[in-house]
Amino acid sequence: MRVSVLIPLVLGIVALVAFWFWYRRAIARMSPDSDDRAPAAVRLTSERLSSLSSPGWRVVHEVPADRLGGVDHVVIGPPGVIAIETVLSDRPTAVDGGRTLTPEATMAAATARGAVDDLTRPVGIDCRTLAKAFWGAPDADRPAADEVAPGVVDVEGQRLIDWLESLPPSTMHSSQVDLVWSAVLRGIGRPDPLG
Fold first, then answer.
1. Which strands form 58-60's sheet, in the order they lie side by side?
2. pLDDT in tens, 111-136
3. pTM higher than 0.85 for the full model?
4. Are 179 and 114 in contact (CB under 8 A)?
5. Strand-strand pairing, 145-149 and 152-156
6. What tens digit of pLDDT does each residue of 148-189 get?
7. How far apart are CA 144 and CA 58, in angstroms?
């Protein structure tokens, strides 16, 4: 066999094998359980939270996963401090009125928002709510949110703002909102917006 035929044949086979491996990785990244898709859901939450009115609300957007555990956004406003965890799936259906009153569920919620609590407690404010924003198929027949355990709420991502604005106000003042916002931003390594 001549060298002029052998070299293009070998290069063609190498190119086909390389394309096959690239194609398999590209398809694997598109699977629903892939970690590469999570940032897209976090971006959806971020865009939705951007529509909150700025004077009354402060948002810490897209918190890196290594800073606050599973919490990817922190919302500070009239109802208090709310830790948000984004989930790329349909919201689970409520069982027994939506509440899971087990000590384990309550403890898991406190642990999930514990890192946020550690940052806000020096300012004198606790984070008492973990909201899981589900980005799946919306269901208009259900309420925007279901309380699934004390301090844990499953929220339909498309109606996240409606739910937040429907919450009753706490005793937080606007100056405390800014202090908590500043404390969380500094705590995750971002510049102090007030300093």
1. 58-60, 73-77, 80-87, 127-134, 152-156, 145-149
2. 888 999 999 999 999 998 999 999 99
3. no
4. no
5. antiparallel
6. 888 889 999 999 999 999 999 988 888 899 999 999 999 999
7. 21
